[in-house]
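User: Here's a chain of 176 residues. Predict its fold as tokens.
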Amino acid sequence: MAMTTVLVSLVLLLASSSAWVFSGSNNGRVKNITLYMHEIVSGPNATAIMLVPTGVVPNKSFGMVKLLDNELRDGPDLSNSSIVGRFQGVMFYLGLVTPDGKQTGISFMFTTGEYNGSSLAVTGPLESVDGAYERAVVGGTGKFRMARGYSLVTFVSNPTPVSMMFKVRLFLKMDA
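Assistant: Prediction complete.
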């Protein structure tokens, strides 16, 4: 009888401590943020450039390096939204097969508003899943200190012949 009580107590203790570890200090809540990224792909105001063109393998993108410094806005309409930060990063074209493997390192740099001075670090392959690109949020600074989660980036439209707009959804858990 005593052994059964000890075993039951041990199981309950382990279950409650596991629940505490996995819930985190924010009670398991996920913070959702939606932003819009505007990229200009050519011209004098380009925000995305191919730094290292291919040449290693004919007709392949293997070896290319692309740099990004795109606007992050709080809405889709350029004339009716505010810039809240920058979507800065690098994209490496790593795959020799089709589709090309792309690896990214992105920083969300917040320059105004509620998250001013804070940043998020996002990394991972650029692979489309049901029209959205999913990447891991691996950390942050300021109000995003100890953040983890994921981002979904979905193409929305081409507002002009030289620009693209993407919807960015962030799903974050943070230790307070």
